[in-house]
Amino acid sequence: MALDAAWAADWARAAAASIAEHREELIDLDRAIGDGDHGENMARGFDAVLAKIDAGEFANPAEVLKTVATTLISTVGGAAGPLYGTAFLKGSMAVAGREELDADGVAAFVEAARDGVVARGKAAEGDKTMVDAWAPAATAARASAEAGDGAAAALRAAASAAAQGSDATIPLVARKGRASYLGERSAGHRDPGSRSTAYLLEAAATTAEARS
Amino acid sequence: MTVGLVLASHSRDLADGLAQLAAQMAAGVAIVDAGGTDDGGIGTSFERIAEAVAEADSGDGVVVLCDLGSAVMTAELVVETLDDEARLRVRLVDAPFVEGAVVAAVEAAQGSSLDVVARAAEDAWRAGVPAADGADPAPGAGGAVDAPVEAPARAEPAPNGPRATVVLSNPEGLHARPASLLVKTAAAFDAATTVNGADARSLLGVMALGARQGSALEIASSGPDAERAVSALVELIESGFGE
After folding, report:
1. Which residue in the set B69, B73, B76 is minimally distant from A178, CB to CB?
2. pLDDT at position B159
3. What is the residue range of B204's domain?
4. How many independent structural domains does chain A possess?
5. Which residue in chain A is spatially nearest to B36 when comparing CA positions?
6. Does any domain span residue B29?
7. Are B177 and B242 contacting, i.e. CB atoms less than 8 angstroms apart?
8. Which of A2, A103, A210, B196 is most buried by its number of CB atoms within 10 A?
9. In angstroms, rounded to a whole number, what is the distance separating the alpha carbons of residues B102 and B88?
């Protein structure tokens, strides 16, 4: 089955489940180098996403992704709200009108999401932020699409790259966000936003593989 | 009406307290606090900021000040979602939260345009905070870590214009209320006026002088209304600012 509106809704549900499952971990990660609200905020945001997805009807993936964006903007309450909101909004615009996402559509979504996060947060790779997960994910998704892979494989490539990118934030010294106030003391801790990005893309890959 | 202000903060108490502080010196200016999440917790709310922008906009425009990162990002999103016509009347400024809000409120109370109010808020980075005991002015304690640290804004001296020296008699020195009166008085004249070298139209510049009871204040001015500006300021200072 293709990556259509029903897949996008499945992804949103799986993402909500994953965030709920990892809520405590995200809280602990953020408490170490931030203000400790990331897990709580993301769980609140994705609870609201779940309600919106279950109540709505969607003609294509972009409509689902746009609903995720506007819901997160309104409900998250921390930096993750405008960042993920912008990621999903820009991503949805990149695939607007497409009935289904092929590998090129997946790459276009992830690239636009990365660009949105970079523009909103004004962070670069290596600043110890969610950009460190989004950027390698976008590169990997595009490379997979250009190699002729299918959509699910492109999402798997993105998810794996995001997870590795998140791992790579551990030794970094934060240069953006609340953790940057800690300076050198931020080294040795994983960036919470990179972790939640990896979970969201993992949910995307898993739901895509279940359909292929 | 005047330019309105929106104070976007992570904390309802912080935004509310700052709105009260700024309003003390700016009667008649719409200063709308947009702090905290919808349920009153710590965080920023898209809805609260969007509603505050609408409430503060009387048609003359709105200056939005933010405390930390996510308040800035959420306010950016609010501005981006406005229609084209409303967006032209909103300025999201990079300013120290407390000092920028106070200066912007005073500037707005004088009936200044949106651009002038926005610039006054952003100039607050350079104006410094009131210095105690001649200490170097510190940068505003806002979010921008890499903000420039510079000396207080200096206005052009008036080499050949009228000048006068008066001794400050207020027991509390040139604190916020008299400084605000001085700035409003100076702004009423078509003249470039300085007080001990600080721009007499800059509230933070005047406050940063740290003038105390017994301090000598040298007023210098140039421009069409220079004579009247100097005598009005001399009269104001000699009257003890009505205190």
Report:
1. B69
2. 65
3. 163-242
4. 1
5. A77
6. yes
7. no
8. A103
9. 23
| Contact criterion met (CB < 8 Å) for A41 and B43 | yes
B154-188: burial string, b at 16+ Cβ within 10 Å, e else: ebeebeebbbeebebebeebbbbebbbbbbbbbbe
Substitution target from B45, B47, B74 for chain A, most A beta carbons within 10 A: B74
Evaluate whether residue B139 is within a structural domain: no
Cβ of A79 within 8 Å of Cβ of B70? The answer is yes
B77 CB neighbours in chain A (<8 A) are 73, 82, 85-86, 120
Could A37 and B44 be called an inter-chain contact, meaning their C-beta atoms sit closer than 8 Å? Answer: no
- B144 domain-assigned: no
Residues of B recognised as catalytic: 10
pLDDT at B157 (0 to 100): 52
Q: Does this complex have an ipTM over 0.85? A: no
Same domain, B105 and B175: no
Listed residues B104, B127, B150: the one ending a domain: B127
CATH of the domain at B168: 3.30.1340.10
Interior angle at CA B21, CA B178 and CA B180, nearest 5: 20
CA-based nearest residue to A208, from A71, A109, A93: A109
The answer to whether residues B175 and B228 belong to one domain is: yes
**Which residues in chain A touch residue B76, judged by CB atoms under 8 angstroms apart?**
82, 120
Q: Residue B131: what pLDDT?
A: 38
pLDDT of residue A10: 97
Do B13 and B111 share a domain, yes or no?
yes
Per DSSP, what are the bridge partners of residue B218? B165
| Same domain membership, residue B119 and residue B16 | yes
B70–chain A Cβ distance below 8 A for any pair:
yes
| pLDDT for residue B139 is more than 70 | no
Is A195 within 8 Å of B86 (Cβ atoms)? no
CATH number for the domain that contains residue A35: 1.25.40.340
Q: What average pLDDT does chain A have?
A: 96
